[in-house]
Design brief:
By secondary structure, the chain is of the alpha+beta class. Helix content is 31%, strand content 24%. The protein contains 8 helices and 14 strands. The strands form 4 sheets. It has a 6-stranded mixed barrel with strand order 1-2-3-4-8-7. A hairpin with a 2-residue loop joins β1 and β2. It starts with 7 loop residues before the first helix and ends in a 16-residue tail after the last strand.
Length: 323
């Protein structure tokens, strides 16, 4: 007998829940930890999320192999590591923890190829429904190491920014800093860098430097911002110019304002426009800047991170990571 379509998803959910309960009942006490379920390559699999974008399968062919979920990034959850705008380090630490809890509470569809690894040896997995949910709620941001993030993630992030959800509730930094490395951390430090990510299209940049940071040193990316008055003038000009009016049509002022601050900081326009629209917008912005429409840019502290060596983040934590 074929079950009604409204009942079948409920039956599947009950089966997944029962599978999780069965796994937890058979797990040794030493391994007790929050267990969630994902459909990994079509197979119901118990997993442990150590943060909102990384999990470890607890059964199946990929058992105990850490998986990094692609296309998005949640803030570091090992301690109060991030800060920007009016946020405190501890407040954004709470946001990181909420991202972990949000991931644990759902049942997400994921795919993974065990031969595809990231720079830390983790399997690269793809969980698009989880990524979209985290980004829409402002508990994560779109991120791509190679070019802009996927268009659905960029659109989800736009909605979160405009609604001031989650990590965007107290403003949008020109760039989000996702990793911080002192020049003395690596044997070969010629290519030492901190990773910056566009808050609009998720593309990554390398902030190269040769600075040595102390433990618990607050390191901030130097940024530039337009005044509200100047931003209003430039946005009005973009809406009036025949070359850009269609490109910015429907985009909210707060979103375009964030784009202008990224441009002022990096001299680049994020790829949030149709086709190659970012190149046209860059041309017009260059003309407006040359005509002094940007006014006097403000030097501000952009996104910041607390420097702590990897080895100290989880055991013997310094005071700055404790709460």
């Amino acid at each position: 007998m074929r079950l009604p379509s409204k009942i079948r998803p409920r039956i599947a959910l009950l089966a997944l829940t029962a599978a999780a309960a069965g796994w937890m009942a058979s797990a040794p006490e030493a391994e007790a930890q929050p267990v969630s379920m994902v459909l990994l390559n079509g197979r119901a699999t118990p997993v442990f999320y150590n943060d909102g974008d990384t999990y470890r399968p607890l059964a199946g062919p990929l058992r105990q192999r850490s998986a990094r979920l692609g296309g998005f990034n949640t803030l570091e959850s090992y301690g109060p590591a991030h800060q920007w705008g009016d946020w405190t380090f501890k407040e954004l630490y709470v946001m990181a923890k909420l991202g972990t809890l949000n991931a644990r509470r759902g049942i997400w569809n994921c795919t993974a190829d065990p031969t595809e690894l990231d720079g830390y040896g983790r399997i690269l997995a793809d969980c698009p429904d989880l990524a979209t949910d985290q980004i829409l709620k402002g508990l994560a941001h779109a991120m791509s190491v190679d070019g802009p993030a996927a268009r659905p993630y960029i659109e989800a992030q736009r909605k979160a920014i405009v609604a001031r959800r989650g990590i965007w509730a107290k403003g949008v930094p020109p760039m989000v800093m996702t990793s911080l490395h002192s020049a003395d951390e690596r044997y070969n430090n010629k290519n030492n860098y901190n990773r910056l990510v566009s808050a609009l299209d998720g593309a990554s940049l390398k902030w190269r430097h040769q600075k040595i940071f102390k433990e618990c040193e607050k390191v901030c990316h130097p940024a530039k911002m337009l005044t509200k008055k100047a931003a209003a003038v430039v946005i009005a000009a973009l809406r009036a110019d025949s070359r850009t009016s269609k490109l910015v049509h429907g985009m909210e002022d707060v979103y375009l304002g964030a784009m202008l601050n990224e441009y002022a900081t990096t001299d680049g326009v994020p790829q949030i426009f149709k086709g190659h629209g970012h190149k046209v917008v860059a041309l017009v912005l260059g003309e407006l800047k040359a005509a002094s429409s940007f006014g006097t840019l403000r030097d501000v502290k952009g996104a910041c991170m607390m420097h702590v060596l990897f080895q100290r983040r989880y055991q013997g934590k310094p005071e700055c990571l404790k709460w």
